Amino acid sequence: MGLRYLTAGESHGAALTGILEGMPSGVEVVPECFASLLRRRRAGYGRGARQKIETDEVTVTAGLRAGYTTGAPIALQIGNAEFTSPGADGVSLAAHDQSSAIHVPLPGHADLPGIVKYGLSDCRNIRERASARETVMRTALSVPPRCLLEALEVRSLCLVECLGGITASIDYNQSPAALAELIAAGGDDFMTPDLAIIQSWKRLVDSAASDNASLGGTAAVIFWNLPIGLGSHTQHDLRLDSRLAGLLMSIPAVRGVEIGMALQQASGDCPAADPIAYDSKNGWSRMTNYAGGLEGGMSNGAPLLLRFHMKPLPANARVDSVDLRSGQLAQPEFYRSDTQAITAAAVVAESIIAIELASQLVKMTGGETLQQVSARLARLREEQKRLPGS
């Protein structure tokens, strides 16, 4: 069995709650791991006022002892500051409070499908759970799996490729480590290795903010030093590409997913496959990585490259809707939003992919402790360098 998790909570409710099960024992997890990751999620030029209100402080209530995983389920809680201190929208979710009901569904959000599905009349009942605020908990739950991946020498990064139609110049032939160094040099405003584009993106965000508009974009995540064979070709629901694409599509406002250089391959602008090479010392390798590290539903040992496309956030769309009480044309009330959230989405994407990859590694090794997982993975890596039958 690998890892599994659940989250609960609403955007303006008392707290977000998460439970992660299946972590091996003995993985070191320190408080700063949570704080630094959630700080990255709140960062980004053009993020909304909510990020200045919330501290996203994580309370661990089970599964960690003296800074290490115990093998038991890990339970986390993150309080919402606005539960007791309403923000600019004046919302309070105290018991039996009907003053904050939303009767005009927001186009592009979960409001209308949700109220029809569940037979409700207040869009807030849907919107509060459908909110991207839920991804704070999924990001926090990724911390123990991230620590496991780091202990197994699997590294990752996330970056922004495109914002509002202005695309960065990114050379994916560079090593992931070189890309990570450039991203760090540019800071958390946009998380891009193209330092020359940052000022253009800032002007774009400022212009959109002055017009109360939102920007969409494209981001990518990269994981490297994965073994060959995570996932499987044997059933559709075991294919790693299927599972990872589904996870990325679970991020609110993400409307498309790309593995490797899929668009270029589809248009014939790059080769359809990567040549295979072998030597007895290093084992299998690829000189190119257009496939993004995935073939036939399995990892192939090359860096895993996933890209996703996010639409502008609907709160600023100013699209007509209907008042549920009268059936008459109406405009949704102002609902604060980020000018751009692609930076946050990139951190969330890296986080949820980390959980799945850690889960796949636990399944592959069958270890119950970090020592077992690490030793079995090391043996597997050596075995994978040999020719079959040798």
Task: Tell me what the structure shows.
- This protein has 390 residues and is of the alpha+beta class.
- The protein has a single domain (4-384), classed as 4-Layer Sandwich (Chorismate synthase, AroC fold).
- Helix content is 33%, strand content 19%.
- The chain has twelve helices and 17 strands.
- The protein has helices spanning 31-42, 50-53, 111-118, 124-130, 134-141, 143-151, 176-186, 198-210, 240-249, 262-267, 342-365, 370-384, and strands spanning 4-8, 15-21, 58-62, 64-65, 68-69, 74-79, 155-163, 166-167, 217-224, 254-259, 276-279, 283-286, 294-295, 298-299, 304-310, 321-322, 329-330.
- A five-stranded antiparallel β-sheet has the order 8-7-9-15-10. Strands 1-2-6-3 form a four-stranded antiparallel β-sheet, with helices on one face.
- The longest helix is centred in the last third of the chain and has 24 residues, at 342-365.
- Mean pLDDT is 92; it is low at 87-91.
